[in-house]
Amino acid sequence: MPPHHTPPLTESRKTRYTRATLQDALMELLARKPLAKISVKELCARADVNRSTFYAHYANTEDLLGDIERSTLDWVGETLATVNRATMADDQEAIRQVLEQVCAYIRSNHNHLQVLMSPQADLGFQQDLIGLIYGFSGFRGVGQVDEDDADEDASMRFHFAVSGSIGLIQYWLSTDLAASSASVASTIYTMSVPSLAPALPRDPSRTR
Prior knowledge:
With 208 residues, the protein is mainly alpha-helical. 64% of the residues lie in helices and 0% in strands. The protein starts with 12 loop residues before the first helix and ends in a 12-residue tail after the last helix. The C terminus is likely disordered.
């Protein structure tokens, strides 16, 4: 089940249970078919709730999936915020520690993350997740690269690191987490951090 934040006092235990049940049911269905082919009727049957109950919480299946994705991103953001960077030697070490925590989180939420990080899932969510990690680390500002930034190399290095990290996590999940969380984090770090380092001085003779 995806992480859930401390709910408002006005939200009952029954409401929290219903939302969690619907989220679990959607993840089970998404493991077998794309979201566009999942109807509210099928989802409610899977979750054993009636349609009126579903619509009391969500507008449609896209709204439900968005809630799951937001919860995941919020949890990751909160986790990153707990990293005491003041005790770290440099930003590279910050990235390493953050990656280890996130990989451990992926292992403990294997079933849902296997769906959310699959090649058929929402690429935008995956990019937001990995970009959030690098952005929080503040590694030479790589997470703040703007698409219109004059530093084209910085933008390309950042997107290379994000895409490569997504691919490796997808592979790891496809192997049923055969490697350890620490090993995956170390591999992502080793492969990505060099790409995030400052670019070598541009050769003035190089043509575009």
